[in-house]
Amino acid sequence: MRPTRAALLVAATALAPALLLTSPAFAAGSTATTTTAVASASGTPVDEMSLDDLRVEVFRILGNKNSGRAVVREATKALEADTPDALRAFLETGYRLAQAEDDRVAIFRILADKNSGTGVIREATKALETDTPDALRAFLETGYRLAQAEDDRVAIFRILADPASSDALRRAATDALTAGTPEDLRYFLEVGRYEVKG
């Protein structure tokens, strides 16, 4: 049975302290852009790589600053086993599954953030309900940014509707909405609105 949205939110709230302490740090307003596709520098397929080439690929993943705890754990296990089969298994399937585990943690952290808006919560919950590596990664790479932009638009419309907003603030809010990019909306809410004079 699929978990309900309410159950996911309760779980996120309950697990938030533990997840915050065990998950990789994500900068505010950004997401990890690590992809789970493994391609060697030489373009050699994983099943044709030598033991040394396999080691290099796994070390390359370990060297990526965006690799989360599960990826590091599974890559380390593969390197400790130090057999072609263990290294290939990690590169072919283990990396993707470990990345999905790290992505789940990142999404739970987003859900636990008290500043996450309705659009972000809705899309994060959908990704967790689908629970495939591709859905989790898609949310972190693009869905989060777009859902945040939706929430930012709502926040800006609230500023426009507020009778206490000055004409200068309304003009700046309208400019942000007209520009319309997620970055413009976020910048206005985080910085631009505080720079408005009058």
Automatic annotation (TrEMBL):
<keyword id="KW-0732">Signal</keyword>
<feature type="signal peptide">
    <location>
        <begin position="1"/>
        <end position="27"/>
    </location>
</feature>
<dbReference type="InterPro" id="IPR005506">
    <property type="entry name" value="DUF312_ALF"/>
</dbReference>
<dbReference type="Pfam" id="PF03752">
    <property type="entry name" value="ALF"/>
</dbReference>
<protein>
    <submittedName>
        <fullName>Uncharacterized protein</fullName>
    </submittedName>
</protein>
